[in-house]
Structures are given as structure tokens and as C-alpha cells.
Amino acid sequence: MSTAIEPITDQLLYTPEEAARVLRFGRSTVYELMAEGSLRYVKRGRSRRIRRSDLEAFVNGLEPVAA
């Protein structure tokens, strides 16, 4: 099994697991962010998907910690 991080930039929609890999967060953290409304997602049936643009907006909205 490879631990290399593959760029997934050509995808439009990500599963929560894929989003967790891209963000370098745990899967549970991504589900928590979705539940609290911090990370937007779309739902079709039982499937949840996160748009690439919503991932980018989430990251761009993060505030850096002042040292």
C-alpha cells in the first residue's frame, strides 16, 4: 500500500474520505465539520459529496493562528 498523496485536482466531487485525505484531516473531523455546517456538501440519496470549490472555500476561510 502506498502512502504517497495523490493529487485529486481533476475531480469535481469528493467523498468525505477523499476530502479528509486532501485536507490532511481525519475522516471523523470531516464529518464533524459537515455536521456543524463549516464544510458544505451535497447529498444525493444516502451519499454525501463535497465540491472541490467548497473544499477550497473552507481552506481559504481558515484563520491562521497568531504566534
In a nutshell, what does this entry contain?
This protein is α+β, with helices and mostly antiparallel strands. The protein is built from three helices and three strands.
Describe what you observe in this structure:
With 67 residues, this protein is of the alpha+beta class. A three-stranded antiparallel beta sheet has the order 1-3-2. The protein has three helices and three strands, in the order βααββα. Helix 1 packs across helix 2 (27-36). The protein is globular and about 45 Å long. The model has no long low-confidence stretch (mean pLDDT 90).
Describe how the helices and strands are arranged.
Layout: E1 13-14, H1 16-23, H2 27-36, E2 42-44, E3 47-51, H3 52-60
Number of helices in the DSSP assignment: 3
Apparent shape: globular
- Structural category is alpha+beta
Instruction: Return Rg in Å.
Output: 12 Å
Q: Which labels suit this protein?
A:
67 residues; three-stranded antiparallel sheet; globular
